[in-house]
Every structure is written in C-alpha cells, then in structure tokens.
Amino acid sequence: MARGWDWIPAAMFSLPSLSSWLPGLPSLEWGSGLLDSFLQGLIGACGVSVLNSLLKVYFFVGCANIPERQPEKERLRAQWALLQTVHLAGLALILTVVGARVAALVVLEFSLRAVSTLLSLDKGSQVTKRLQLYLLCQYSLGCGLTCGLSFLQEGAPHRTLNLLLGLGLAALLSTGARRLRRHVCRLYELHSSQHYCGVCLSLLAGAHGLPPLLGRALAVAFAVGDLAAVALINRDFLTTSEAVRFWTPLTICYTLLVIYMQEEQRQRPGLQSLVQTVLVRMGGLFVLLLTVGRWLDLLGILISLLGELWCLVGVRTMLDLCQIQDFPSQRPSVSAPSRPRPSAPAQPSGTASS
User: Fold this and answer.
1) Which of 59, 92, 167, 217 has its CA 20 to 30 A from that of 192?
2) Which residues, at least 6 apart from 61, have a Cβ–Cβ distance to it below 8 Å?
3) Cα 207 to the chain's mean position, in Å?
C-alpha cells in the first residue's frame, strides 16, 4: 500500500523550488546571487574599515603631537577591537540588503554634496573641512564600492570567484590597516621619542601627507561608483522620457538638499547638526521615491538611514577634533639643541646707585 505522503513531489524539497517561495528583497537573489551580494557587502565594509583605520592613525598622531589633546587621544586609544568587529559585520549586513538603486542614489547624492563643498571651501578651513568630508563619506563609500562591483561583475562568467579574490585583497588591506592602527595607538609615543620604529618615524615625519593620499583614493573610488550608479539606474528605463521623468525631480531634490545642508552646517556645526542633516537627506529621498520609485526603494532608504547612523557612531571623537581650528598637525620641525645663554656681566662693586 502506498504511503499517504507519496504523492508529494520530491522536487518541492529542492533548493530552486524553495527559493521561488521565499520573498524577494532588494538586490538579493536566493542562491548564488545572495552569496554575491554578501561578498560585495563585505568588500564595501572592508573598504570603509581601511578608511576608518587610517583616519584614526592620522588623528592619533596629531593628538600625540599636541599636549592639549591628551583626552581625545585617550578616547581614540580606548576603542575596543570587539566593537570594531561588530561595526564591520553590521555594516556588511546593511550593504548586503540595501537595494542597488538606493545605493546608487546615495553615491550620487554624496558626490554632488562633496563637489559643492570642495568648491566652496576657503583657504583657512580647507584641511578641516576635507577631513570632515572623509569622515562623513564612509557609508557612501561602501555603497560606491558595492555599486562598482555590481556593475563591473555583471554578466561575468566567474563572478563569484572574482568576488572571492576581491574579498581576499580587501580583507588583507583591512587587516593591515587595523594592525597599523593598533601599533600606533600602543607604541607610537614610545617609538617616536626613542627613534626605534621605522613605521612610527615615518608617521612622525610624514603624517601630514596621509589626508591627500586618502583624498586621491576616494576620488578614484567615487568616480567609478558614480559611473556605475548612473548605469545601474538607467538600465531600468525603457525610453528616454522615463529617464527624464526620473532624473529631473531627482536633480532638483539633490540641489535643494545640498543648499540646505551647507547652510545648516555653517550655522550649527557639530554632531547634532550632522545627524539632523542625515535625517533631512533620507527624508527628502524618501518623499521623492514615493512618486518616482518603487516600494523596495523605500525600504532601502530606511536601511540607508540605519547605515548612515551606524557609520556616525564610531567617529564622534574625530568629528570633534575636526571642529578644532589648530588641530591638523603640521610636519614637526626638528629643533636644534638649546645652548646655555651667556650670563649677564656682573655690576662693578664700586658703582653706587644714585
């Protein structure tokens, strides 16, 4: 006698059949697509980790060279490695589930804001504003890396293998940057004072060149991310009129957001103003996508809001240092050993005061 459950097809328990019943999420496809999205998110998070570690090295060296910045230096040193690992994992998860369209919009919005900020800089605040821009671009950098990888690896025959190789390189760079940060936070002051370590001596003499190097690397990363973002957005439009109906309100919204944010940060600089700016940016994109977007894009905007706030958590000390006018440490000058001053000639004993 046949069993009662023999009529159930065995194919229903196969992975492709089960995947058809699972809900669709932004930028996710169950199976190999999910693995590719996760690898892209990890690579983007590793890139953000490299930027964060190198910025902490620069700020720590600057605080060590200025005696008045000892409290900020101790706060930079006191950050736990476990929290940084949790931060990296959380950012990788956020970059995995955010939609490709929303990530592209975030990249384009930050690029427009960065260009506008750089063009309006005066000579006195150029260094501090650039450092603040580097700190605020972390989530946008992660979105730019994922967009660039998604566009460059689209249709590749060995996409997963390529992403695994890219993840290996990204993890190697991230691990090296984190080891450099730990070494500097623990031993920089000792090694630089005793002229013992080549790495610390190089930072002592050339730490001022680290922000320009990061600026050039970020310019290349965002240039690739912008091109990929435009291509990823335009592939969803069948006609030119559809693209115009999308890009016209988007450009107007971005322009108004940039003008508002520059005025707001000029009047009220600080972390509270930055958080409010993030809320306004994401709120503007949310309202815009209500009319020209999809419902998955709205979910991606909420995830991006979480990602922006997630990246602001660990940079509060460095943002406070950016507000200090005299912080950016210049190249230390090696002073010559002081010579004893000649003693003043003794007054003759026979001279009487009048």
Assistant:
1) 217
2) 184, 188, 203, 204, 207, 329
3) 20
| Through-space distance between the first and last CA atoms of the chain, rounded to whole angstroms | 136
**Domain with 71 in it:** 27-322
- pLDDT tens digits for 20-79? 444 444 444 445 678 888 999 999 999 999 999 999 999 888 888 777 777 777 888 776
SS (H, E, C) the chain: CCCCCCCCCHHHHCHHHHHHHCCCCCCCCCCHHHHHHHHHHHHHHHHHHHHHHHHHHHHHHHHHCCHHHHHHHHHHHCCCHHHHHHHHHHHHHHHHHCCHHHHHHHHHHHHHHHHHHHHCCCCCCHHHHHHHHHHHCHHHHHHHHHHHHHHHCCCCCCHHHHHHHHHHHHHHHHHHHHHHHHHHHHHHHHHHHHCCCHHHHHHHHHHHHHHHHHHHHHHHHHHHHHHHHHHHHHCCCCCHHHHHHHHHHHHHHHHHHHHHHHHHHHHCCCHHHHHHHHHHHHHHHHHHHHHHCCHHHHHHHHHHHHHHHHHHHCCHHHHHHHCCCCCCCCCCCCCCCCCCCCCCCCCCCCCCCC
The candidate with the shortest Cα–Cα distance to 243, out of 232, 227, 254, is 232
Overall residue count recorded for the chain in this entry: 354
Number of domains in the chain: 1
User: Is the pTM higher than 0.85?
Assistant: no
Residue 353 lies in a domain: no
